[in-house]
Amino acid sequence: MSRVVVAGAARTTFGRSDASGRDHAVRAVRAALADAGVGWDRVAAAFGGSDNAGNADTLVAELGLTGLPFINVRNGCATGGSALVSAVNAIRGGMADVVLAVGFDKHPPGAFDPRPEDWGLDDAYGRDGLMVTTQFFGMKIQRYMHDHGISPHTLALVAEKAYRNGARTPEAWRRKPLTAQEILDSGMVSDPLTRFMFCSPGEGAAAVVLAAEGVLPTGSRTVRLDGVAVRSRRFGSFEVFSPWIPAGALTSVSVKAAAAAFEAAGIGPADVDVAQLQDTESGAEVMHLAECGFCEHGEQERLIPDGTFEIGGRLPVNTDGGCIANGEPIGASGLRQVVEIVHQLRGTAGERQIPGTPRVGFTHVYGAPGVSACTVLSC
Amino acid sequence: MEGAVAAPPSGTTALHGSICPDCGVATYLAQSACPRCGAGLREVELSRRGLLWSWTVQRYPPKSPPYVPPATGFTPFAVGYVELPEGVRVAAILDVPLDDIAIGMPLRLGVRAGSAVPRARADR
């Protein structure tokens, strides 16, 4: 079975602009091809998608009508990760030797506004004001803080780190550092989460060119994709827009996806030097640290104030500022994380480069309706 | 849950859910098949008393549509999950003063005519 390497990786500047989601996608693909040193005509298969900005296969109108198989992926917050796992399997299965994965999006300003009928729910859930994603995030971390002794100050520190790292990331959206106190005082959105603890829906794209090892020249610090996994929820998980959940201990799709990615790579969380974790809001990063295996539940209250997850700490997390500083173009987030890990492992992350010689990186996305995608990369 | 009995939230009736005769899973709303074991479910009236499992406050007006604010205008309101003795946590609007809300507090709940969304108030 072929080993898979990252030949090229690139993203666009996230945020808000006049560009369409497709414009972002074309720019990201061209930059990833330039990084790989190949032309579009060398790409033998492609997988990609957006949640809200159109079909990826229509990008061939701009990229070139080469006749390649281009498969649309639409898998909520796991869209990028699902495109990636498809691309990896296309190489391993012998379908193609150079494969593109692309994710892009552009969302209207403000909170997402899902329709009850799309979720199989009575209209009353919308009329009465329960179709609001921020409520779910607030309730999940509220219970977690109760069970595991996490303080609001720790939530603020997570966002403070995100803005600090975003300030060092030229392509990030939110680049102004904020203090923990400013974050706590920014106005409650869904208790215990304040305005500046949340990411905002935005726009952007990220693209990765994968190749079978040895097919393309990749320079001295070649990043390999050692494990990739996508999972959907099992019984007992707590997800957005649930009229009910079962009592008892919660299950987590992120636990399963992370474990599967580590198993595929043959290593564990203790081997990771740098990680990107889904941080829809501060609480998500806190919970995902434990769910992905990087600490025990509750240890975050000590590890986060100690600087463990800062650039320069034992395990830097969300070195590009994560979703909080980059915003959330749903289709692009998973591949943005991979692009950041590639930079960190190659040593090309500029002002936010972590010290030393990192060898192993990890990415994790989680989202509605209970999907998670994780990758393990090494150099 | 013995002791003083408060009236259930006014104008409400009990929640109609379902229970799995094989594995015991309880659901709200009622559904036809068990999400854990696939067995056919039996419709039941769920308990009207439970404990608050988690909560938050909706501090800003949700997007309209679909949200329909009250005639008096939007004011922040609390939502939460109420854990019932049947082993199910039910999403509900909490008609409780915001400063009084705490995980574990006893609540009574019901549904109003024309809405499937449960409403809960303190059980004192």
Topology:
The complex is a heterodimer of chains A (379) and B (124).
Chain A: E1 4-11, H1 21-36, E2 45-49, H2 60-63, E3 70-72, H3 79-92, E4 98-106, H4 124-127, H5 133-148, H6 152-167, H7 180-184, E5 188-190, E6 193-194, E7 203-212, E8 223-232, E9 244-246, H8 253-265, E10 274-277, H9 282-291, H10 300-303, H11 322-326, H12 330-346, E11 360-367, E12 371-378
Parallel strand pairs in A: 2-3, 2-4, 10-11
Antiparallel strand pairs in A: 1-7, 1-8, 4-7, 5-6, 8-12, 11-12
Chain B: E1 12-13, E2 16-19, E3 26-27, E4 42-45, E5 49-58, E6 77-84, E7 88-94, E8 106-112, E9 119-122
Parallel strand pairs in B: 7-9
Antiparallel strand pairs in B: 1-8, 2-3, 2-4, 5-6, 5-8, 6-7, 8-9
Notable features of this structure?
heterodimer; A: 379 residues; alpha/beta; Peroxisomal Thiolase, Chain A, domain 1; nine-stranded mixed sheet; two-stranded antiparallel ribbon; 12 helices; 12 strands; 33% helix; globular; B: 124 residues; mainly beta; OB fold (Dihydrolipoamide Acetyltransferase, E2P); 2 domains; five-stranded mixed β-barrel; three-stranded antiparallel sheet; disordered N terminus
Protein model, in words:
- The complex is a heterodimer of chains A (379) and B (124).
- Chain A is built from 12 helices and 12 strands.
- Chain A is an alpha/beta fold and 379 residues long.
- Chain A has one domain: Thiolase/Chalcone synthase (Peroxisomal Thiolase, Chain A, domain 1).
- A 9-stranded mixed sheet of chain A has the order 3-2-4-7-1-8-12-11-10, sandwiched between helices. In chain A, strands 5-6 form a two-stranded antiparallel ribbon.
- The radius of gyration of chain A is 19 Å and the shape is globular.
- Chain B is an all-beta fold and 124 residues long.
- Chain B has 2 domains: 34 residues; 78 residues, Beta Barrel (OB fold (Dihydrolipoamide Acetyltransferase, E2P)), CATH 2.40.50.840.
- Helices cover 0% and strands 39% of the residues of chain B.
- Chain B contains no helices and 9 strands.
- In chain B, strands 5-6-7-9-8 form a 5-stranded mixed β-barrel.
- The N terminus of chain B is likely disordered.
